[in-house]
Amino acid sequence: MTCEQVLSVDVTENNAGSFPIGVRILVVESDPTCLRIVSKMLQVFGYEVKTATRATDAMHILREKEDEINLILTETHLPDMDQYEILETVGELSSSPIVVFSADNNESTILGCLFKGAELYLVKPVIENDVKNLWQLTYRTKLKTAVSGEGSNTFHGGSAEQNTSSLTVGNPSSTMGMTDQKGKRKELEETDNDHEYIDNLTAPKKPKLVWTNELHNIFLQALRILGVDGAHPKKILQHMNVPGLKKENVSSHLQKYRLYLKREQDGMQKTMIGDCCPSSTFNPQGGFSQYTNSQFFMTASQSEYRNNFQNNLCRPMSVHSLGFVHSPTHVNSNYNGILIPNYVQVDSQSKQLYPSYPNSNHTEIITTTDGSFSSFDQKGKYSVDKHLNQGTTLSNTGTHGPTFLGNSQQQVQFPLPQPQPLPEKEDESEILDIATMEELELLAMEKEFLEDLKNDLW
DNA sequence: GACGCAATAT
DNA sequence: TATATTGCGT
Protein backbone atom coordinates (compact mmCIF):
# COMPACT_ATOMS: atom_id res chain seq x y z
CA MET A 1 0.00 0.00 0.00
CA THR A 2 1.46 3.32 -0.98
CA CYS A 3 1.27 6.50 0.99
CA GLU A 4 -1.10 7.94 -1.56
CA GLN A 5 -3.43 5.02 -1.16
CA VAL A 6 -3.28 5.20 2.57
CA LEU A 7 -3.96 8.87 2.67
CA SER A 8 -6.74 8.65 0.16
CA VAL A 9 -8.74 6.16 2.18
CA ASP A 10 -12.21 7.55 2.27
CA VAL A 11 -14.03 6.12 5.20
CA THR A 12 -17.08 8.17 4.37
CA GLU A 13 -17.85 6.68 1.00
CA ASN A 14 -20.33 4.08 2.18
CA ASN A 15 -21.87 5.56 5.20
CA ALA A 16 -22.43 9.22 4.67
CA GLY A 17 -25.05 10.50 6.98
CA SER A 18 -24.45 8.05 9.77
CA PHE A 19 -23.31 9.19 13.17
CA PRO A 20 -20.72 7.82 15.53
CA ILE A 21 -23.10 7.86 18.45
CA GLY A 22 -21.67 5.87 21.29
CA VAL A 23 -18.22 5.43 19.81
CA ARG A 24 -15.62 5.98 22.49
CA ILE A 25 -12.39 7.28 21.14
CA LEU A 26 -9.18 7.56 23.07
CA VAL A 27 -7.05 10.48 21.94
CA VAL A 28 -3.40 10.36 22.91
CA GLU A 29 -1.59 13.62 22.28
CA SER A 30 1.24 15.22 24.22
CA ASP A 31 0.44 18.79 23.18
CA PRO A 32 -2.49 19.98 25.32
CA THR A 33 -3.63 22.56 22.78
CA CYS A 34 -3.70 20.07 19.97
CA LEU A 35 -5.42 17.58 22.24
CA ARG A 36 -8.15 20.07 23.08
CA ILE A 37 -8.76 20.99 19.45
CA VAL A 38 -8.93 17.43 18.23
CA SER A 39 -11.07 16.36 21.16
CA LYS A 40 -13.51 19.17 20.57
CA MET A 41 -13.70 18.36 16.92
CA LEU A 42 -14.48 14.76 17.70
CA GLN A 43 -17.09 15.65 20.27
CA VAL A 44 -18.82 17.89 17.76
CA PHE A 45 -19.23 14.90 15.53
CA GLY A 46 -20.66 12.81 18.32
CA TYR A 47 -17.76 10.81 19.62
CA GLU A 48 -17.33 10.16 23.27
CA VAL A 49 -13.77 11.28 23.85
CA LYS A 50 -11.26 10.16 26.43
CA THR A 51 -7.87 11.79 26.47
CA ALA A 52 -4.32 11.07 27.51
CA THR A 53 -1.17 13.11 27.14
CA ARG A 54 1.24 10.33 27.88
CA ALA A 55 1.48 6.77 26.74
CA THR A 56 1.32 5.47 30.27
CA ASP A 57 -1.96 7.30 30.82
CA ALA A 58 -3.32 5.79 27.67
CA MET A 59 -2.22 2.36 28.78
CA HIS A 60 -3.93 2.89 32.07
CA ILE A 61 -7.20 3.85 30.41
CA LEU A 62 -7.02 0.90 28.09
CA ARG A 63 -6.26 -1.47 30.90
CA GLU A 64 -9.03 -0.17 33.04
CA LYS A 65 -11.65 0.38 30.40
CA GLU A 66 -10.38 -1.34 27.33
CA ASP A 67 -13.78 -2.74 26.57
CA GLU A 68 -15.22 0.70 26.36
CA ILE A 69 -12.73 2.12 23.87
CA ASN A 70 -13.73 1.57 20.28
CA LEU A 71 -11.06 3.59 18.55
CA ILE A 72 -7.64 4.95 19.40
CA LEU A 73 -6.28 8.12 17.89
CA THR A 74 -2.69 8.61 18.86
CA GLU A 75 0.22 10.84 18.18
CA THR A 76 3.49 9.01 17.70
CA HIS A 77 5.99 11.19 19.49
CA LEU A 78 5.01 10.94 23.10
CA PRO A 79 7.30 11.90 25.95
CA ASP A 80 7.34 8.47 27.50
CA MET A 81 7.24 6.25 24.44
CA ASP A 82 8.59 6.37 20.91
CA GLN A 83 6.52 6.25 17.77
CA TYR A 84 6.52 2.53 17.19
CA GLU A 85 6.57 1.43 20.78
CA ILE A 86 3.25 3.14 21.42
CA LEU A 87 1.73 1.26 18.51
CA GLU A 88 3.10 -2.04 19.65
CA THR A 89 2.01 -1.54 23.22
CA VAL A 90 -1.44 -0.33 22.34
CA GLY A 91 -1.80 -3.08 19.77
CA GLU A 92 -1.05 -5.69 22.39
CA LEU A 93 -3.37 -4.12 24.87
CA SER A 94 -6.34 -3.34 22.69
CA SER A 95 -8.07 -4.76 19.68
CA SER A 96 -9.52 -1.41 18.72
CA PRO A 97 -8.31 0.14 15.50
CA ILE A 98 -5.47 2.59 15.93
CA VAL A 99 -5.30 5.77 13.91
CA VAL A 100 -2.05 7.67 13.98
CA PHE A 101 -1.95 11.39 13.49
CA SER A 102 1.36 13.11 13.16
CA ALA A 103 3.08 16.06 11.57
CA ASP A 104 5.60 13.67 10.14
CA ASN A 105 4.68 13.06 6.53
CA ASN A 106 7.74 11.03 5.77
CA GLU A 107 6.83 8.02 3.72
CA SER A 108 8.95 5.61 5.71
CA THR A 109 7.38 6.80 8.93
CA ILE A 110 3.89 6.37 7.53
CA LEU A 111 4.61 2.92 6.24
CA GLY A 112 6.38 2.05 9.45
CA CYS A 113 3.35 2.97 11.49
CA LEU A 114 1.04 1.03 9.23
CA PHE A 115 3.32 -1.94 9.45
CA LYS A 116 3.32 -1.69 13.19
CA GLY A 117 -0.42 -1.87 13.30
CA ALA A 118 -1.91 1.51 12.56
CA GLU A 119 -5.16 1.29 10.65
CA LEU A 120 -4.84 4.77 9.22
CA TYR A 121 -2.25 7.54 9.21
CA LEU A 122 -3.39 11.13 9.24
CA VAL A 123 -0.95 13.95 8.63
CA LYS A 124 -1.40 17.00 10.83
CA PRO A 125 -3.08 19.35 10.81
CA VAL A 126 -6.06 17.10 11.15
CA ILE A 127 -9.21 18.54 9.67
CA GLU A 128 -12.86 17.78 10.23
CA ASN A 129 -13.19 15.50 7.26
CA ASP A 130 -10.30 13.46 8.55
CA VAL A 131 -11.99 12.57 11.79
CA LYS A 132 -15.71 12.75 11.37
CA ASN A 133 -16.05 9.26 9.98
CA LEU A 134 -13.17 7.58 11.69
CA TRP A 135 -15.69 5.58 13.68
CA GLN A 136 -16.30 3.52 10.59
CA LEU A 137 -12.95 1.91 11.15
CA THR A 138 -14.45 0.24 14.16
CA TYR A 139 -16.89 -1.40 11.83
CA ARG A 140 -14.14 -2.44 9.50
CA THR A 141 -12.43 -4.19 12.34
CA LYS A 142 -15.70 -5.64 13.42
CA LEU A 143 -16.40 -6.74 9.90
CA LYS A 144 -13.07 -8.46 9.56
CA THR A 145 -13.82 -10.41 12.67
CA ALA A 146 -17.37 -11.17 11.70
CA VAL A 147 -16.79 -12.17 8.13
CA SER A 148 -13.44 -13.84 8.19
CA GLY A 149 -13.37 -15.02 11.74
CA GLU A 150 -9.66 -14.46 11.49
CA GLY A 151 -8.18 -11.84 13.72
CA SER A 152 -4.88 -12.26 11.97
CA ASN A 153 -6.20 -10.10 9.19
CA THR A 154 -5.83 -7.07 11.33
CA PHE A 155 -2.56 -5.34 11.85
CA HIS A 156 -2.72 -5.56 15.56
CA GLY A 157 -0.93 -8.81 15.84
CA GLY A 158 -3.32 -9.90 18.53
CA SER A 159 -5.22 -13.12 18.67
CA ALA A 160 -8.60 -13.59 17.06
CA GLU A 161 -10.12 -13.39 20.45
CA GLN A 162 -8.46 -10.11 21.15
CA ASN A 163 -9.78 -8.67 17.97
CA THR A 164 -13.36 -9.34 18.75
CA SER A 165 -13.79 -6.11 20.53
CA SER A 166 -16.99 -5.56 22.36
CA LEU A 167 -18.46 -2.73 20.44
CA THR A 168 -21.39 -0.99 21.93
CA VAL A 169 -22.42 1.13 19.01
CA GLY A 170 -26.06 0.79 18.21
CA ASN A 171 -26.34 -2.41 20.13
CA PRO A 172 -24.54 -2.49 23.43
CA SER A 173 -25.37 -6.14 23.89
CA SER A 174 -23.94 -7.05 20.55
CA THR A 175 -22.60 -10.56 20.38
CA MET A 176 -19.71 -9.71 18.14
CA GLY A 177 -17.37 -11.39 20.54
CA MET A 178 -18.56 -14.74 19.32
CA THR A 179 -16.04 -16.50 17.21
CA ASP A 180 -17.67 -19.83 16.51
CA GLN A 181 -19.15 -20.41 13.10
CA LYS A 182 -22.60 -21.08 14.33
CA GLY A 183 -22.74 -17.65 15.87
CA LYS A 184 -21.69 -15.83 12.78
CA ARG A 185 -24.72 -16.00 10.59
CA LYS A 186 -27.11 -15.62 13.44
CA GLU A 187 -25.22 -12.67 14.70
CA LEU A 188 -25.32 -10.91 11.36
CA GLU A 189 -28.99 -11.56 11.02
CA GLU A 190 -29.88 -10.50 14.49
CA THR A 191 -28.06 -7.22 14.74
CA ASP A 192 -29.89 -5.26 12.12
CA ASN A 193 -28.00 -2.05 12.62
CA ASP A 194 -24.68 -3.72 12.37
CA HIS A 195 -25.86 -5.70 9.42
CA GLU A 196 -26.69 -2.57 7.51
CA TYR A 197 -23.32 -1.10 8.17
CA ILE A 198 -21.54 -4.28 7.36
CA ASP A 199 -23.42 -4.72 4.13
CA ASN A 200 -22.45 -1.30 3.06
CA LEU A 201 -18.79 -1.71 3.65
CA THR A 202 -16.44 -3.37 1.28
CA ALA A 203 -15.30 -6.48 3.03
CA PRO A 204 -12.34 -8.67 2.32
CA LYS A 205 -14.17 -11.93 1.76
CA LYS A 206 -12.78 -15.35 2.27
CA PRO A 207 -11.49 -16.71 -0.99
CA LYS A 208 -13.13 -19.83 -2.33
CA LEU A 209 -11.08 -22.93 -2.65
CA VAL A 210 -10.98 -24.42 -6.10
CA TRP A 211 -10.73 -28.17 -6.10
CA THR A 212 -8.43 -28.65 -9.00
CA ASN A 213 -7.81 -32.10 -10.34
CA GLU A 214 -4.46 -31.99 -8.68
CA LEU A 215 -5.96 -31.24 -5.29
CA HIS A 216 -8.72 -33.74 -5.78
CA ASN A 217 -6.15 -36.38 -6.55
CA ILE A 218 -4.40 -35.68 -3.30
CA PHE A 219 -7.78 -35.96 -1.65
CA LEU A 220 -8.34 -39.32 -3.29
CA GLN A 221 -4.93 -40.49 -2.32
CA ALA A 222 -5.68 -39.65 1.29
CA LEU A 223 -8.95 -41.55 1.09
CA ARG A 224 -7.19 -44.52 -0.37
CA ILE A 225 -4.63 -44.57 2.39
CA LEU A 226 -7.11 -44.01 5.19
CA GLY A 227 -9.68 -46.50 4.08
CA VAL A 228 -13.34 -46.35 4.89
CA ASP A 229 -13.01 -46.21 8.63
CA GLY A 230 -10.43 -43.50 8.66
CA ALA A 231 -11.82 -41.35 5.90
CA HIS A 232 -13.01 -38.52 8.07
CA PRO A 233 -12.35 -34.86 7.46
CA LYS A 234 -9.80 -34.41 10.16
CA LYS A 235 -7.73 -37.40 9.14
CA ILE A 236 -8.08 -36.62 5.49
CA LEU A 237 -6.87 -33.13 6.14
CA GLN A 238 -3.86 -34.43 8.00
CA HIS A 239 -3.08 -36.88 5.27
CA MET A 240 -3.46 -34.37 2.52
CA ASN A 241 -1.05 -32.09 4.29
CA VAL A 242 -1.87 -29.14 2.11
CA PRO A 243 -1.03 -25.79 3.66
CA GLY A 244 -3.99 -23.49 3.76
CA LEU A 245 -6.51 -26.27 3.39
CA LYS A 246 -9.03 -26.40 6.19
CA LYS A 247 -11.17 -29.09 7.64
CA GLU A 248 -14.25 -27.26 6.41
CA ASN A 249 -12.92 -27.46 2.88
CA VAL A 250 -12.37 -31.16 3.21
CA SER A 251 -15.73 -31.75 4.87
CA SER A 252 -17.54 -29.94 2.15
CA HIS A 253 -15.68 -31.76 -0.55
CA LEU A 254 -16.11 -35.09 1.15
CA GLN A 255 -19.82 -34.50 1.42
CA LYS A 256 -20.04 -33.75 -2.22
CA TYR A 257 -17.91 -36.71 -3.09
CA ARG A 258 -20.11 -39.03 -1.11
CA LEU A 259 -23.15 -37.62 -2.79
CA TYR A 260 -21.54 -38.34 -6.09
CA LEU A 261 -20.87 -41.93 -5.07
CA LYS A 262 -24.40 -42.31 -3.85
CA ARG A 263 -25.80 -40.92 -7.06
CA GLU A 264 -23.76 -43.38 -8.99
CA GLN A 265 -24.97 -46.15 -6.78
CA ASP A 266 -28.58 -45.11 -7.14
CA GLY A 267 -28.17 -44.82 -10.85
CA MET A 268 -26.84 -48.30 -10.92
CA GLN A 269 -29.80 -49.61 -8.98
CA LYS A 270 -32.08 -48.03 -11.51
CA THR A 271 -30.14 -49.62 -14.28
CA MET A 272 -30.56 -52.97 -12.65
CA ILE A 273 -34.26 -52.52 -12.27
CA GLY A 274 -34.66 -51.48 -15.86
CA ASP A 275 -32.39 -54.20 -17.12
CA CYS A 276 -32.28 -57.23 -14.88
CA CYS A 277 -29.25 -58.61 -16.55
CA PRO A 278 -26.69 -55.91 -17.20
CA SER A 279 -24.50 -58.28 -19.09
CA SER A 280 -22.38 -55.55 -20.41
CA THR A 281 -21.41 -52.19 -19.19
CA PHE A 282 -20.50 -51.12 -22.61
CA ASN A 283 -22.52 -48.22 -23.72
CA PRO A 284 -24.09 -48.85 -27.08
CA GLN A 285 -23.69 -45.20 -27.92
CA GLY A 286 -20.01 -45.73 -28.22
CA GLY A 287 -18.56 -45.63 -24.76
CA PHE A 288 -18.59 -47.35 -21.46
CA SER A 289 -21.09 -46.33 -18.89
CA GLN A 290 -19.93 -45.09 -15.56
CA TYR A 291 -20.62 -48.34 -13.79
CA THR A 292 -17.53 -50.25 -14.41
CA ASN A 293 -16.98 -51.63 -10.96
CA SER A 294 -18.97 -54.69 -10.06
CA GLN A 295 -18.83 -53.74 -6.42
CA PHE A 296 -21.04 -50.89 -7.33
CA PHE A 297 -23.95 -53.16 -8.00
CA MET A 298 -24.18 -54.29 -4.44
CA THR A 299 -26.46 -52.18 -2.37
CA ALA A 300 -28.90 -52.14 0.49
CA SER A 301 -27.03 -52.91 3.69
CA GLN A 302 -24.85 -50.48 5.47
CA SER A 303 -21.86 -52.75 5.25
CA GLU A 304 -22.34 -53.05 1.56
CA TYR A 305 -22.59 -49.36 1.25
CA ARG A 306 -19.40 -49.09 3.18
CA ASN A 307 -17.84 -51.58 0.85
CA ASN A 308 -18.95 -49.53 -2.05
CA PHE A 309 -17.55 -46.50 -0.47
CA GLN A 310 -14.32 -48.28 0.23
CA ASN A 311 -14.06 -49.64 -3.22
CA ASN A 312 -14.80 -46.39 -4.84
CA LEU A 313 -12.75 -44.22 -2.67
CA CYS A 314 -10.34 -43.77 -5.45
CA ARG A 315 -12.80 -42.82 -8.08
CA PRO A 316 -12.78 -39.35 -9.38
CA MET A 317 -15.98 -37.50 -8.87
CA SER A 318 -16.52 -36.97 -12.50
CA VAL A 319 -19.80 -37.54 -14.23
CA HIS A 320 -18.82 -39.94 -16.89
CA SER A 321 -20.62 -38.47 -19.79
CA LEU A 322 -22.57 -41.46 -20.89
CA GLY A 323 -21.81 -42.10 -24.46
CA PHE A 324 -19.92 -38.93 -24.88
CA VAL A 325 -16.48 -40.23 -24.50
CA HIS A 326 -15.02 -41.84 -27.50
CA SER A 327 -13.81 -45.14 -26.29
CA PRO A 328 -13.19 -47.46 -23.40
CA THR A 329 -9.82 -45.89 -23.05
CA HIS A 330 -11.39 -43.42 -20.75
CA VAL A 331 -11.72 -46.02 -18.10
CA ASN A 332 -8.56 -46.93 -16.36
CA SER A 333 -7.25 -48.69 -13.35
CA ASN A 334 -5.56 -47.31 -10.41
CA TYR A 335 -2.94 -49.46 -8.84
CA ASN A 336 -5.39 -51.19 -6.58
CA GLY A 337 -6.89 -52.69 -9.62
CA ILE A 338 -10.07 -50.71 -9.23
CA LEU A 339 -11.40 -49.33 -12.42
CA ILE A 340 -11.52 -45.66 -12.49
CA PRO A 341 -12.30 -43.27 -15.25
CA ASN A 342 -9.71 -40.74 -16.04
CA TYR A 343 -10.13 -37.06 -16.07
CA VAL A 344 -10.46 -36.77 -19.74
CA GLN A 345 -11.07 -33.72 -21.76
CA VAL A 346 -12.51 -35.12 -24.88
CA ASP A 347 -13.32 -32.27 -27.13
CA SER A 348 -15.06 -28.98 -27.08
CA GLN A 349 -18.41 -30.60 -27.77
CA SER A 350 -18.19 -32.99 -24.89
CA LYS A 351 -19.27 -32.57 -21.37
CA GLN A 352 -16.74 -31.91 -18.73
CA LEU A 353 -16.05 -35.10 -16.96
CA TYR A 354 -15.74 -33.40 -13.67
CA PRO A 355 -18.09 -30.48 -13.87
CA SER A 356 -17.41 -29.57 -10.32
CA TYR A 357 -13.98 -28.39 -11.29
CA PRO A 358 -14.00 -24.92 -12.68
CA ASN A 359 -10.58 -25.62 -14.04
CA SER A 360 -11.50 -28.81 -15.72
CA ASN A 361 -10.75 -27.31 -19.05
CA HIS A 362 -7.22 -27.84 -17.86
CA THR A 363 -7.70 -31.46 -17.07
CA GLU A 364 -4.63 -33.44 -16.61
CA ILE A 365 -5.17 -36.26 -18.99
CA ILE A 366 -5.71 -35.29 -22.50
CA THR A 367 -6.93 -37.45 -25.30
CA THR A 368 -6.54 -36.66 -28.87
CA THR A 369 -9.52 -36.85 -31.12
CA ASP A 370 -8.73 -40.42 -32.01
CA GLY A 371 -8.96 -41.37 -28.39
CA SER A 372 -5.30 -42.01 -27.72
CA PHE A 373 -3.64 -40.81 -24.60
CA SER A 374 -0.90 -38.36 -24.39
CA SER A 375 1.11 -40.60 -22.16
CA PHE A 376 0.95 -43.81 -20.23
CA ASP A 377 2.35 -45.18 -17.09
CA GLN A 378 2.32 -48.88 -17.38
CA LYS A 379 0.69 -51.59 -19.39
CA GLY A 380 -2.37 -50.07 -20.78
CA LYS A 381 -2.88 -48.13 -17.65
CA TYR A 382 -2.65 -44.52 -17.01
CA SER A 383 -1.94 -43.44 -13.53
CA VAL A 384 -3.64 -40.36 -12.29
CA ASP A 385 -1.11 -40.25 -9.55
CA LYS A 386 1.73 -40.30 -11.94
CA HIS A 387 0.38 -37.29 -13.63
CA LEU A 388 -0.10 -35.78 -10.31
CA ASN A 389 3.49 -36.38 -9.44
CA GLN A 390 4.84 -34.95 -12.56
CA GLY A 391 3.09 -31.67 -12.48
CA THR A 392 0.43 -31.45 -15.09
CA THR A 393 -1.23 -29.07 -17.40
CA LEU A 394 -3.32 -27.37 -14.80
CA SER A 395 -4.18 -23.74 -14.92
CA ASN A 396 -1.60 -23.16 -12.32
CA THR A 397 1.15 -24.82 -14.23
CA GLY A 398 4.42 -24.32 -12.53
CA THR A 399 2.83 -23.80 -9.19
CA HIS A 400 1.83 -26.39 -6.66
CA GLY A 401 -0.98 -25.70 -4.33
CA PRO A 402 -4.66 -25.27 -3.81
CA THR A 403 -6.25 -22.52 -5.74
CA PHE A 404 -8.49 -20.03 -4.09
CA LEU A 405 -10.91 -17.94 -6.01
CA GLY A 406 -11.51 -14.52 -4.61
CA ASN A 407 -14.28 -12.13 -5.42
CA SER A 408 -12.15 -10.53 -8.03
CA GLN A 409 -11.49 -13.93 -9.53
CA GLN A 410 -8.02 -13.58 -8.19
CA GLN A 411 -6.37 -16.85 -7.41
CA VAL A 412 -4.21 -17.31 -4.40
CA GLN A 413 -1.92 -20.27 -4.33
CA PHE A 414 -0.09 -22.13 -1.65
CA PRO A 415 2.86 -24.43 -2.05
CA LEU A 416 2.01 -28.09 -2.18
CA PRO A 417 4.14 -30.94 -0.97
CA GLN A 418 5.11 -33.30 -3.73
CA PRO A 419 3.00 -36.43 -3.61
CA GLN A 420 4.65 -39.81 -3.31
CA PRO A 421 6.04 -41.15 -6.56
CA LEU A 422 4.71 -44.37 -7.95
CA PRO A 423 6.74 -47.39 -6.96
CA GLU A 424 6.93 -48.94 -10.34
CA LYS A 425 7.53 -47.92 -13.89
CA GLU A 426 7.68 -50.08 -16.92
CA ASP A 427 9.20 -49.76 -20.27
CA GLU A 428 6.96 -48.01 -22.70
CA SER A 429 7.58 -50.76 -25.19
CA GLU A 430 5.48 -52.99 -23.01
CA ILE A 431 2.47 -50.80 -23.33
CA LEU A 432 -0.42 -52.78 -24.61
CA ASP A 433 -3.44 -51.59 -26.33
CA ILE A 434 -5.33 -49.82 -23.60
CA ALA A 435 -8.74 -50.59 -24.97
CA THR A 436 -7.96 -54.28 -24.95
CA MET A 437 -6.77 -54.13 -21.39
CA GLU A 438 -9.80 -52.29 -20.24
CA GLU A 439 -12.12 -54.61 -22.01
CA LEU A 440 -10.45 -57.59 -20.40
CA GLU A 441 -10.73 -56.06 -17.01
CA LEU A 442 -14.34 -55.22 -17.57
CA LEU A 443 -15.13 -58.69 -18.69
CA ALA A 444 -13.44 -60.09 -15.61
CA MET A 445 -15.44 -57.80 -13.41
CA GLU A 446 -18.67 -58.57 -15.14
CA LYS A 447 -17.99 -62.24 -14.65
CA GLU A 448 -17.30 -61.63 -11.00
CA PHE A 449 -20.48 -59.65 -10.71
CA LEU A 450 -22.59 -62.31 -12.32
CA GLU A 451 -21.12 -64.89 -10.01
CA ASP A 452 -21.90 -62.72 -7.04
CA LEU A 453 -25.42 -62.30 -8.29
CA LYS A 454 -25.74 -66.03 -8.69
CA ASN A 455 -24.46 -66.61 -5.16
CA ASP A 456 -26.88 -64.06 -3.81
CA LEU A 457 -29.75 -65.88 -5.44
CA TRP A 458 -28.73 -69.06 -3.72
C1' DG B 1 -16.28 -32.19 19.93
C1' DA B 2 -16.22 -34.65 15.58
C1' DC B 3 -19.02 -36.21 12.21
C1' DG B 4 -22.66 -36.68 8.40
C1' DC B 5 -26.09 -34.70 6.01
C1' DA B 6 -29.60 -31.48 4.27
C1' DA B 7 -30.61 -26.91 3.53
C1' DT B 8 -29.16 -22.62 2.49
C1' DA B 9 -25.94 -18.82 1.43
C1' DT B 10 -22.42 -16.90 -1.38
C1' DT C 1 -22.33 -24.28 -10.60
C1' DA C 2 -19.02 -24.96 -6.96
C1' DT C 3 -17.96 -24.13 -2.53
C1' DA C 4 -18.89 -22.41 2.23
C1' DT C 5 -21.68 -22.23 6.14
C1' DT C 6 -25.21 -23.47 9.24
C1' DG C 7 -28.32 -26.34 11.93
C1' DC C 8 -29.34 -30.48 13.78
C1' DG C 9 -29.17 -35.21 14.88
C1' DT C 10 -25.87 -38.92 16.01
From TrEMBL:
- Tell me the InterPro entries matching this sequence: ARR-like (IPR045279), CheY-like_superfamily (IPR011006), Homeodomain-like_sf (IPR009057), Myb_dom (IPR017930), Myb_dom_plants (IPR006447), SANT/Myb (IPR001005), Sig_transdc_resp-reg_receiver (IPR001789)
Q: Where is the HTH myb-type domain?
A: 203-262
Q: Where is this region: Disordered?
A: 152-184
Q: Which SUPFAM superfamilies match?
A: CheY-like, Homeodomain-like
The record's annotation in Pfam families points to: Myb_DNA-binding, Response_reg
State the SMART domains in the record. REC (SM00448)
GO terms under biological process: cytokinin-activated signaling pathway; phosphorelay signal transduction system
Mind telling me which PROSITE patterns this protein's record contains?
HTH_MYB, RESPONSE_REGULATORY
Question: One GO CC annotation, please?
Answer: nucleus
* Classification via NCBIfam families: myb_SHAQKYF
Q: What is this protein called?
A: TWO-COMPONENT RESPONSE REGULATOR-LIKE APRR8-RELATED
